[in-house]
Amino acid sequence: MPPLWAVLALGCLRLGSAVNLQPQLASVTFVTNNPTLTTVALEKPLCMFDGTEPLNGTYQVYLYVMVGSGMAANASVQDSSNAPLGSTFQQTLGGRTGPYKATVFELIPCSDLPNLAGVGDVTQASEILNMYLVRVGGNSTCLWDPNFQGLCNPPLSAATEYRFKYVLVNMSTGLVQDQTLWSDPISTNWPTPYAAIDTWPGRRSGGMIVITSILGSLPFFLLLGFAGAMLLSFLDMGTADGDMTHDSQITQEAVPRSLGVSEPSYASVNRGPPLDRAEVYPGKLQD
Q: Would the pTM count as exceeding 0.70?
């Protein structure tokens, strides 16, 4: 595989004059999943417009978007005075009634482009790719945010063909300096049908299977813990009942023991003389 800088250089060289150019999809070397359901990544028109290199600070590039149709190839993006159109996504119903301005970016001198060798550094990759690529449909909140200020570049519609066009605007005059042709129709992806989604566990990763198994077993362990807590509660209640029975038995035994000790004393105190002696006393009185 050739290095990234060589791929981009070949892409720029094959384009030549901007009058005969068309916006191109970003190479799979840069973006592997492109287009998506709602976005399209395009290569920026770097080193493509003739005669603008010495005056880069006074130029901007407008990107226009329109739903692909037979009329789109001839749709104009400038008015009678050669000024660029300012139509928005909302005004054109998402590009269905005419082209809308999706985004604006500065024209970067070729000498100031970063080296693509830095893409391997994760701290620089995003910044470098933003210098070379433009993403249509990358702002998911501008349509619903009442405080949003600026140009709205909302998500595109799924399964829809779009055409794209670059326009070079001279900022000192506000007029169109140059422009490309409309791109060939580029379609966003189709949503995956529900019936086509593979739910077979064999297609799932090992981590997903482990997590699913743990979550599935969690209710069982919770139920087991609850049953154990209930069993311990019953055992504690049974132990408490046994202690109360033992105390009551000791108390009941204490009453007979006290009566048994006092009974002999009571008998000895109340013991009287034999009856035969009581019969002798009257005899003595008679004498």
A: no
